[in-house]
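Appendix B. Raw example, untouched.
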Amino acid sequence: MNKQISLFLILIGLLWSCSNDTIFTKAYRFKDEQWTQTMRPTFTVDIQDTTQLYDFIFTLRSTTDYAYNNLWIFLRTTPPFGKSVREPYEIKMADPNGNWIGKKSGTIVEHQLIFKRRKVPFKGKYKFELEQAITEKQVDELLDISLEVRVSAAK
């Protein structure tokens, strides 16, 4: 019996040590399922450990009525010290045949933009600001966008 309990505790310990520690998660909900060019979802993350590697996961949820196969965004990253950087990124939403990319549940599809195993140079608050970067003044059928930051599982 004691061997079984010891084995169980060892397995629980291994599973616990392999889990990703989420340090931040927040979502921005789009009013009326529309992302206009003036809306700029912003996430501020306080990171105090510069020795860790982090995964930054942006999750965009759309409906299956979304009209395009991708969405271009600008991501402006502002560190606690120094200049901000604004970069374009493409979130692929559907393949050329119109099949959804991502996790689909009913009429909702989750699309992700993932930055794995990133180190931050400074302790403090990092600001991530998103803006839609297509020629339309508003994009319809977008529910929300979220940011999750977690300690990277890979060492």
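End of appendix B.
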